[in-house]
Amino acid sequence: MKKLLHIIATPRTEESRTLQVSQVFLKVFTEKHTDWVVEELDLSNEQLPFLTAKRVDGKYVLLGGKDLYGELKEAWQEIVAHIERFKSADAYLISTPMWNFSIPYSLKHYLDVILQPKYLFRYTAAGVEGLVKNKSMVVITSRGGDYTSPKMHGADFQEPYLRFVFGFIGITDITFINAQPMDMGETLQAQKIKEAQARAKELALQL
Ligand SMILES: Cc1cc2nc3c(=O)[nH]c(=O)nc-3n(C[C@H](O)[C@H](O)[C@H](O)COP(=O)(O)O)c2cc1C
Asked: What is the model's pTM?
């Protein structure tokens, strides 16, 4: 069985606009791909390890080309478990609202935990090399405002950031579905959710 890791970065459940789109994607995807399982990682219910001074020391040990040892290795157990869980997936679905023009802190915290040298990337003479290869990702977002017009592009730090950060570790096959605007009137919201759900269905059938 192949695994789709569904990373959820909204604390809202039934009320979530993002998840209303993701649920359509998952329904069609699982109906079509019966050889795939979906594993859920709900970041709002996850006790992510804090990056204490000791844990950050570990990052510099790895950046220096050495392996973790002794107390540092112990302090990194939870970090390594999260990295291994991430790497065990064959593809990813991220469900995230826009928060303050970017991503919610739970998702940033998760990225700070898993993006580690030797595990997800390494520096070589030729530059950085992402170590997560041949994996694809779908990112479903929802936003209160509308960032589709060229004059609003500069305020969208969410899609460019996620594309860059995942590209950095080797994931470049990324498709975004952005439901927007969600907070500029109920009629528009209902219409844009429907449009995003139609795209999600189409994408799940294409994959
Ligand atoms: C803390 C917080 C910050 C937000 N910041 C933005 C923002 O910068 N730009 C925007 O367009 N919408 C912003 N919103 C609105 C959400 O992106 C929007 O309501 C989204 O649909 C919520 O998704 P959800 O229902 O899946 O949680 C913010 C909402 C919250 C709760």
From this structure: 0.97
